[in-house]
Amino acid sequence: MATLREKNVLVTGGGRGIGRAIALAFASEGCRVAITGRTQASLDAVAKEIRAKGAKALPLCCDVTRKDEVDALNREIAGEFGGIQILVNNAGMAPAAAFLEMEDRLWNQVLKVNLTGAYHCCKVFLPAMIAAKWGRIINIASTVAKVAYPYIAAYTASKHGLLGLTRALAIEMARTGVTVNAICPGYVETELTLGNAARMAEKTGKEVEEVLKLFKSATPQNRLIAPEEVADLAVMLASESTGGITGQAINVDGGAVMV
Ligand code: NAD
What span, in angstroms and rounded, lies between the C-alpha atoms of 168 and 137? Predict the structure, then answer.
């Protein structure tokens, strides 16, 4: 996809997991890649991998729940790269809790990171895309943006909300050259999934391997998704040739959810 060469990308939560894979996939396409997250050391490690591919990297700490920090991030990226054309809202958290036992603090934090964080980034980075008459916003949602499972009410509500934001913004931006889409992964092999499996194992007295087997068996393909599979779709949605795809939510889940 030669058209992506020299484009500037921002990946939030780019220090590990799916975000890291997306950052590396865009680096392989010849993009300049800004990555943000909360831990400078992991951002620096991914930046090293990006540079090893011959691409420019900009690892900057930012808490996406803080609008002032996202504004500062925009200024720093503008100074180094002159702005971004592709925004990947990937930062997220997925804690589990029974609804009545869930602390209000958890509800508020999940909504703040998964939904308001993406809102802040769209608000801050969109004006330059509109001015350039070209832009791509890719929101990493979840199959849980379309269906529900027990014990993750906050996560489910936040991802349904993120899908709503995706669709609303896609329509509002339809004539600006900016597309807005969501990717809806199922269980992806990352620290987030492994951490959730470990916590579930502890609660239920099962082995972690057994829980992972359960996660796998929830999909017809009976496997976890690799972060790189999500990353490849993100690159595709950013390409010139997919300009007609907007407001969509594409599942990468081994056939688990078919809506
Ligand atoms: P992960 O926990 O490995 O990575 C999440 C990243 O987000 C981390 O780098 C973290 O630092 C960053 N982050 C969290 N809060 C932040 C904040 N306030 N500001 C900036 N960065 C912040 O998770 P992952 O598995 O790579 O998931 C990435 C995204 O994909 C999330 O939005 C998640 O909901 C979504 N997703 C994951 C799965 C899965 O099975 N792993 C499935 C569907 C969707």
Answer: 13
Q: Is 119 a known active-site residue?
A: no
Q: Is 256 in the pocket of ligand 1 (CB under 6 A)?
A: no
Tokens encoding 177: 């050259």
pLDDT 10s digit of each residue in the chain, 259 long? Answer: 457 998 999 999 999 999 999 999 999 999 999 999 999 999 999 999 999 999 999 999 999 999 999 999 999 999 999 999 999 999 999 999 999 999 999 999 999 999 999 999 999 999 999 999 999 999 999 999 999 999 999 999 999 999 999 999 999 999 999 999 999 999 999 999 999 999 999 999 999 999 999 999 999 999 999 999 999 999 999 999 999 999 999 999 999 999 9
| Entry pTM | 0.98
- 175 Cα to the center of ligand 1, angstroms: 31
- In the chain, which ranges are continuous DSSP H helix? 17-28, 40-52, 67-81, 104-111, 117-132, 153-172, 191-204, 208-217, 227-238
Question: Does the CB atom of residue 149 touch ligand 1 within 6 A?
Answer: no
Q: What angle do CA 126, 128, 133 make, to 5 degrees?
A: 95
109 alpha carbon – ligand 1 mean position (Å): 13
Cα separation, 193 vs 87, in Å, equals 24
Structural domains of the chain in order of their starting residue, each with its CATH number = 8-186+227-251 (3.40.50.720), 188-224 (no CATH)
